[in-house]
Amino acid sequence: MALYEHVFLARQDLSQQQVDALVEQYKGVISANGGSVGRVENWGLKSLTYRVNKNRKAYYTLMDITCPPAALNEMERQMGLSEDVLRFLTIKVDAHEEGPSAMMQKREERSERGGFGDRDRDRGPRSFGDRDRGDRGDRPPRSFGGDAGADRGPRRPREGVEGGAQ
């Protein structure tokens, strides 16, 4: 049997219990067709990059699946018919990963760090305009007067353009 990683996005107005019920429903579809579902990770309610069917957020869920292709096709067919599932993606893998996925590792690392407020700050407080503008001795002062193009000389017409020299 083939190994798959399957992620689906459920609507934002569902409860976590309804999302869990969806997972159980799709587990039943896989097992009824001769497959099995290993790890299931609920990544929680996350913001979407762009709106999908008028939803700005969605519940993300990852499932590790071992099943024949027919079972996967049936589950994806049912997900496509469901109004609660916004999007899904299935990837065939050589082996299932051990331990938590990358999304769950990020969350655990964040909690170990203690958030953003506990970082060591080596720079003092900064205000918006605290840079020393100085003399700017490396370039001449700007002039915004009427003589802006005086140092370039007179303009010559371009060749090959209407109104230019021919």
Helix content: 25-40%
Low-pLDDT parts are: none
Number of strands: 4
Anisotropy-based shape: elongated
As a whole number of angstroms, the C-alpha radius of gyration is 30 Å
Q: How many individual helices?
A: 3
The fraction of residues assigned to DSSP E strands is 25-35%
Biggest sheet: strands side by side, in what order?
2-3-1-4
Helix-and-strand structural type: alpha+beta
Verbal overview:
- 25% of the residues lie in helices and 30% in strands.
- It is of the alpha+beta class.
- A 4-stranded antiparallel β-sheet has the order 2-3-1-4, covered by helices on one side.
- The protein is elongated.
- The termini are far apart.
Task: Describe the secondary-structure layout.
Blueprint: E1 2-11, H1 16-32, E2 36-52, E3 55-67, H2 69-81, E4 85-93, H3 102-113
Helix pairs in contact: 1-2
Summarize the structure.
This protein has 166 residues and is α+β, with helices and mostly antiparallel strands. It has helices spanning 16-32, 69-81, 102-113; strands at residues 2-11, 36-52, 55-67, 85-93.
List the defining traits of the structure above:
166 residues, alpha+beta, four-stranded antiparallel beta sheet, 3 helices, elongated
